[in-house]
Records
---
Amino acid sequence: MMARRDFSTNPLGVDETDAVLPTVLYPSPPLQDDSLDGLILSPSAPGSGAFDDAAIGGPVVLPPDATVPFWRMWYNGRSTAADADRIPLPTGAIGAATSPDGVTWTRVPGAAAGGAVLDRAADAPAAWDHLHIGTGSVVTTPVCPPGSSGDSGGGEHGGDQRLTLYYFGGSAEGVTMPAGVWAPVPLTIRGLRMRVGVAESFDDGRSWARQGASAGGMVQDVGADPEAWDALYVGWPHVRVADDEVGSNGGSRHRVGPPARLALTYHSYHVPSRTYRVGGATSSDGGATWTPASAPLLAVGAAGTWDDGGHGTRWVVREPSTAGGRLLMFVEGARAGITAGHSIGVMVSVDGGASWDRASDGPVLAPNVATPAAEGSATEEETTAAAGGWEVAATPRAAWDSISVGCPCVVWDTAEGHWKVYYVGFGPAPGGGLASGIGLAVSAGTDWSVLTRVRQA
């Protein structure tokens, strides 16, 4: 059997992949200090049987709207019971959580295995999403136009919104990577061949039904040409509704049925160039069919920059009109030749997403490596005592997200008048390896170029 540690040599285009298992993170922060700034959600307790008791990632967040008065999050998680030879992403199943303020979150137990709301196709060994699934983005559509007498909760669908989830999944196919790509020897990896699928919910995202491709869910396949830049996998889809169909919170305007015109971004790993590349596709029929762009959307950064290894996960939003109204792409940048140090930068577009330019030379959110042991802050030894007996040295504790940050999800908080940037962070696990968590940083007003990690009371 392939050594699990081999995967840690490369994050496969998203620093979620560096979550080499077994992964342990403080189920809830035992002490609060600088090292926990930003952390808002951790994996469930190890060994609890929850779908996310090993690792979590991929936050997708919707703010309150006219139909739902609270914040909603969907995220992916990996179980400690996952196959050891499966690609070590924090994926496997998708769960949900809610919040009154977008900062403090409570899990919503689902009916799928381990409390998930959508599980992998575990009973279909040949399915494209048999081995693991992860979140991408959620598009909201009113079930009935405002003022109509249609279903207003508790009817056939049990809600006023249709939620469309774009997600990715991996099959049980073993993909062999040549020697020298991610390890000195060839690696055969199960779950690496990822594709994009779609599911719908009418009960506020507590359960989902696969749609498309004869209800198998898949809507975007890998590149047909073995030499194509996206032939290896397509994953982490982000779908944006066309501007003339967008409502106030990013969902579609008052129409019955999904919006017709959609823009999709996704990423892959290009083996010949050893870079992660972001691609795009458009749909004019509500996502039933997609027309891919002929080439990657983003240019790889120059040597020595934050994105000289290419780009992975991303989130596209439009600035408020008062701030310029441009399209912003918050995107995870990878460093060439190393696995750590992923960060989040911003690209801007003034032509509807056809072309993108860097907003600055550096990232807007980088790993939190500057967390000195301030006077009165907890050491790992003190945290050990509070958390129940980890045996670690009495040294200042590294930040929970000190190794890499990525998987941005960006929301304009109308009530607070600032951007909320949700992300996935990785840091050292107390027992060795890497630990994952979901974090939050906020802007000062409309200025997204300076982000501050939140600190929970």
---
Amino acid sequence: MELKILILGHLLVISVAINVGFLYRECCIGRIQELKNGNEKNSSLVANGREPHFCETCSSSSTLVQAEVVSSSEAEATSEQVIDLDHGDPKMYERYWRLTGDKATVLIPGWRFISYFSDVGRICWFLEPEFARAVKRLHNLVGNAITHNRQIVVGTGSTHLIQAALYAISPQDALDPISVVSAAPFYSSYPLIVDIIKAGVYKWAGCANEFKKNHGDKMYIELVTSPNNPDGATREPVVNGSNGFLVYDLAYYWPQYTPITSPADQDIMLFTVSKSTGHAGSRIGWALVKDPEIAKKMTEYIMLTTIGVSKESQIRAAKIIEVVCDTHEQRGNNFKEVDPFFDHSYNLMAKRWGQLRAAVENNNELFSLPQFPLGTCTFSQRSFTSQPAFAWLECRGDTNDCESFLRRHKIVTRSGKHFGECHKYVRISMLPTDEVFAKFTERLSTIT
């Protein structure tokens, strides 16, 4: 009882700390070296009404760096600018949603959503029925997950739901904290997500393959990310021990990224609008949970940390999902100005991966990319290889620090060291604006 009280007492503070920590981390991981003639460039920026970008390094150095940065939020990229592809801000989707006009617009009158409660008859009592219906409709359309006899738990993005799942399945009376593992290369934020809570109930234990070799008989929770972030590989559990729990992070199991070969049918499955429709700013994710008792515990965690999830965000996400479904089910009728959403997104990802592979082929002595097996998508009936939201780029030859090498060419990426791998790898976002991505592939192909 005392342990549970301790955990609950920390949760409200921790929920704030998680979000602040991620914002700080995103800034720090994207650190860039001071550009040549940086003082003159910053003077020019100020003269033109633009502030130079400042960021403190996460390393032992305390150097303050200044640079003009191009990220996915920028419309144009020139040869003098730094291209920031460190994080997966899905600006790629903005052009499509502009073309839909006001079809995804939501008008919410001031009297709505006064109450904390949405549906007291549900386990997740703050889940808006409109959002629940939209989630089921989307999965039934795409065929990527079973929704029958599943509880839907809504959260503020996947990070919130991962924490809720860990809270729900961790033994509360164990003498030692349960180990949380994931096969390397694993999502770079997993260690931070797991270890930010110091209540002694669970702890980050690193790579699942190493855990299997040394501690396979102990209790564990394995995070299975499929398709995987950062390398796009299709994943299965690694440890396969008798004392384990599994959480499936399926944020990228959508037909623009990978062939949908069968509906996922796992005990705990996590999804998010960030990478499915591109609306990262709405901060909405959902879990499909088989066991009602686990769903209750996940709901309890979310209640204690945020007292529910924004109804406005749920209604907006529901409307966006409805429009996605309508573009496929009413194609050629009410949506003449745009292609069906997943068709458009698939074609855009295929084009980008073609551009990137051409750039790497032009420099195949310096770089390499993973190859993916051919699969047939039951949703689109296309046969294609995966085209992930991130590229896992390897620097060949004598280049041992790929992140630093690319940074010298004004391309900001995330080093493999953050994913449990070596410095020869970097993760590159494939989701910036068209202008930024075109400039990136052009610059990559000319590196010597």
---
Amino acid sequence: MNGFRWDRQWLVVNSKGRAYTQRVEPKLALVEVELPKDAFIEGWEPTKSSYLAVRAPGMDDLNVCLGKQCAKADGVSVWEWSGFVLDEGDETSKWFSTYLGIPSRLVRFNAGFISTIFAQLDEKHKLQGVTLGLLFKK
């Protein structure tokens, strides 16, 4: 997988830990996310004041801290892969659940683990370029 550091790091899952796609939840296509400008500089590390800004029609903006420790969540699955991810917390869960109208959670892959997961999935499902519902704005 070739992409910038934050490529395909987050996904939205249902109450059973199964990943949503825009095909299943079309409203995800309207979600916009924005990283700090410095996040695209090689070697940049987030701090506790670095946020992923999440926006969607009819919703207040959501700021997800990039520098916090996240709790592990087990039992998450994307296609045939399943394993643990990092849960972005109850505030993000409430935001996505409200927006989608169904119980949802925002989770993040461990940064060192992403390329392994998506290389396997890309090989089987040809998912190249898929961001699992979240579009980045530079």
